[in-house]
Structures are given as structure tokens and as C-alpha cells.
Amino acid sequence: MRGPHNIWRLIRTGATFIRTGAMHQALEAMDAPPRLRAVAYAISAPFAWLGYKGDPELPPVTRAITALGPAYIKFGQVLSTRPDVVGSELADQLRVLQDKLPPFETSVAKRMVEEELGAPADQLFMEFSEPVAAASIAQVHSARRADTGERVAVKVLRPGIERAFRRDLDAFHFAAAMIERISPASRRLRPSEVIKHFESVVMGELDLRLEAASASQFGANTEGDAGFVVPQPVWNLSAKRVMVLDWAEGLPMGDPDGLRGAGHDVSGIGERVLQLFLSHALRDGFFHADMHHGNLKVAGNGDILAYDFGIMGQIDEYTRRVYAEILMGFIQRDYKRVAEVHFEAGYVPADRDVDEFALALRAVGEPIFGMDATHISMARLLAYLFEVTERFGMQTQTQLILLQRTMVVVEGVARSLNPSINMWEVAKPVVEKYIRESLGPRAIANDLRKTVQVLGRFGPELPDLVKAAIRKQTEPTPPPLTVTRWRYAALISAGTALLLLGVVLGELL
């Protein structure tokens, strides 16, 4: 129910931040303007006594977020990878949200295994450890299969997690609707669509059967990626609330000192993480969309291990090409081309000035080039980028939300390993390779071949289309939206030409 009762949830959110002492630290870290600080305190302070207490042993912001529930924890996980936005101290505090949350009882996990898999956990596994990692939605146990003796990871959803997420999502939907109603200018950001997109992603994460399928697909896509490992699911031991994966041992990527002590090239690992993500997004259109420190480890031989495939992103071929052209334009500092791509894709209203938009983009991109990343304030850069999008009437592109969000997270991971990393320089070889393979003559030939294949499937229907067109011409009063004969003739001619072209291409390629 997305009614006014959600006001209570939102008030309690602010009250919890006040009661735990997190409000001041959060606003200070985000460099919030004075007016926003005043409003936040005015709305929340009178209700401080209604806020959740949280765990007093945790730092204030982490204490507030964990008390508020899984949806807030997801947001905190993103911020934990952005010390350049929230500061190093707060980012370190939030890092415990990735995989060090309080676990639930092992006996509860075993009971869920029996309910989901239809057999006692002690019968399916000869060993079943205490939790080795606990995150916002599930926790993981190390186990050993009774039938093969192989070591595996058993992931079990937190009890009642579905209900908790739905409660928070309802409040988010209500807040988005209220923001759109109170501030018409915010509608270009499509807050309601953003929340809907977030909901579809999160609710998919609550079905471990889908996560198992994602792990299987991701593993197949990346099989040829050197130095990258995706543990595969054990299908006969996986269900909606329980999933079993191959075990993969490694050091946490969030521990740079430990990685250096083990002899790993930490800076090189940071670059590889960024390049692998871009390769998966551009090449496959299917990427890990939750690549924070807690979901990445480094094996003894230097391989990067990925975990937790509950949130995966997908983007179509056209959007990937647009995104690649935008990235390449920034890399080449061709801001006019970046602006033109935005207009061609319809991201910016056609009545705006493309040259003026190119100048605004130059102000966004130039501070990144020729400067050590440690001297770049990503918070200020993002704030200016927001001003640019507002001034030019850009609407939020929901199909890119997950990609952009993950890009921010992955860059944060890379910068935690190599503070001097420049994402544009690291991204250049990956983007250039994709553009060569996807925007050149071979790509055009492949596009034509796909078109021919689609038309070929409809070939048997062409005679019926011609007959329908002739009959329509004999009717005295054709109904509205009737397709005229010349359109069918044009379709048939175009289809025939493309079919012939496909045959020629098939002979040549």
C-alpha cells in the first residue's frame, strides 16, 4: 500500500538518523547546503524519540542504516565505495555493510535448507559451518557435499526479507510520488520510474533461482576472460531461498594491505576490475551490477573472483553503442561529438543548443584529464553534472541507471586499490576495441544479416499480406489505420532486396 501511512516510515527514517547521532555526520559528509540541513533537522528532530536505537557498538551512520533495514543497507553499500564523495572515514565505517552484518542462527539456516530442498541439511552436507559472510539479503555458509565431498558455498536468504523490502519500497514509491507532486522540476529525473527500476532489480535478487541462472549465464559469457572466475551453481541443490555454488577461496578485495602482503599487484588489480566491468557491459550487454568490495576477492594466483549475482544488468545493442560513443568522446575529449550523440539518442530535447551543451560537457570532462585522481573531487563533479542535466532538460534514462550506478561503484573499488587511477585512460583500450568490432563494416554486415533473418522468418506470410492488401483496396470504406497496398508492396520489395543482399553477404562473409 503506497498511501499516506508511508509518511510514518519516512519520518522514522529521519528520526533514526537523529537518535543515533548520524544526521550531522551524514549531512557533513555529503556537504549538504545549509537550507537542506535546516529542513532535515526541522522535520526529524521533533520525532527523534521515535527513531530506532540500532546497535550502539556501531558507528552512528552505520548504526542508523542497519537499524532501518535492507533497502537502506543497499544504499549504504554504494556509498561505502565512494570515499571521494562521503570521505574516507565514513566510507570505512560503511564498508561493514558489504559482508559483515550480524548473521542469523545457523539452525534457522538449516531449517530453511530442509524446507527448500526437501531433505535435512545434515543429510545433504557432511559439513555445514557457521556463517562465513552476512550481507543485507542473505548469508553464506561453507559446507561439504555428502554425495561428492566437494566444498561448496551455501547461500540462504534472511528470514522475512521479502516483507521487509516491500515495506521499504512502498515508502520509497510514496516519497517519489510526493517529490514529483511538490516539485514539478524533479519530474525530468523520473523518480517514480527510478524506484520502479530499483524494485524490479531488488525483487529479482530475492529469488535465488534467478541468481543461479545469472551465475550460469555470466560464467558462460566470461569463460574466455583470463584471470576472472565465476563460481557455478549446483542446480540440484538450489531453490528459491537456498542456492549452492562452487567454493572459491580468495583474499577480500577491500583489504589492499593484505593483498600487497600476499604479493599481488594492487594497482593492476584495480585496473583489471574496471576493464572487466566495461568489457562485460559493452561486449556482452550482461554485467555484474553489484561489484562492491564484498562481492570481489583475489585468488592466490591473482585471479579475480566474483560473487553474489543477485543484481545483474542488461543493456541492448543500440544502448551499448550509444554508451560506447559517449565514453569514447570523453576519452578523445571530443565534447562536440558527445553532445551530438546525446541529441541523436534523444537524451536531450531537440530544441536545445548542441554547441552550448558541448561547452557544458567540456566543463565536466576537462578536470579529469591531466590531473591526479586524488585531486579530483567527485562530489563537486557530480554536483556540476547534475546542474548541467537540469539546465538542458535531460530526463533520467532508466535503461542506463544500473549501468551508471555500477560504474560509480566499480570506479570506487578501483580507486580504493589505486587512488591515482584515471578511469578514462584505463577504459580507453576496452572502448576502442568495442567500437572497432561494433561500429565498423563488419558490424554493419552483421546488422544486415540479422535483419535478413528476421524478414526471412516472416517470408511465408508475405503472400497473405499481399492478399489482405488487395482485399482492403476493394472495400468501399476502409477502417481506420488500414495499411495501403503500396506499403505492402514496399515491404515486399524491401524484404526481397534484403533477402537477396543476405544471400550475397552469406557468400562473401
Describe this structure in words.
This protein is an alpha+beta fold and 509 residues long. Helix content is 59%, strand content 9%. The chain has 24 helices and 10 strands. The strands form 3 sheets. Strands 1-2-3-5 form a 4-stranded antiparallel β-sheet. The protein starts with 5 loop residues before the first helix and ends with a helix. Residues 481-509 have low confidence and may be disordered.
Contiguous uncertain segments of 5+ residues: 481-509
Shape: globular
- Using only C-alpha atoms, the radius of gyration works out to 26 Å
Helix content: 55-70%
Question: What's the structural blueprint in terms of helices and strands?
Answer:
Blueprint: H1 6-19, H2 22-29, H3 34-44, H4 60-68, H5 70-79, H6 83-86, H7 88-94, H8 96-99, H9 106-117, H10 121-124, E1 125-134, E2 138-145, E3 151-157, H11 161-182, H12 191-205, H13 208-221, E4 228-229, E5 242-246, E6 251-252, H14 256-261, H15 266-284, E7 286-288, E8 296-298, E9 304-306, E10 312-314, H16 317-331, H17 335-344, H18 354-365, H19 378-391, H20 398-417, H21 423-438, H22 441-457, H23 462-474, H24 485-508
Parallel strand pairs: 4-9
Antiparallel strand pairs: 1-2, 2-3, 3-5, 6-8, 7-10, 8-9
Helix pairs in contact: 1-3, 1-4, 1-11, 2-4, 4-5, 11-12, 15-20, 15-21, 16-17, 16-21, 17-18, 18-19, 22-24, 23-24
Entry keywords:
509 residues; alpha+beta; four-stranded antiparallel beta sheet; four-stranded mixed beta sheet; 10 strands; 59% helix
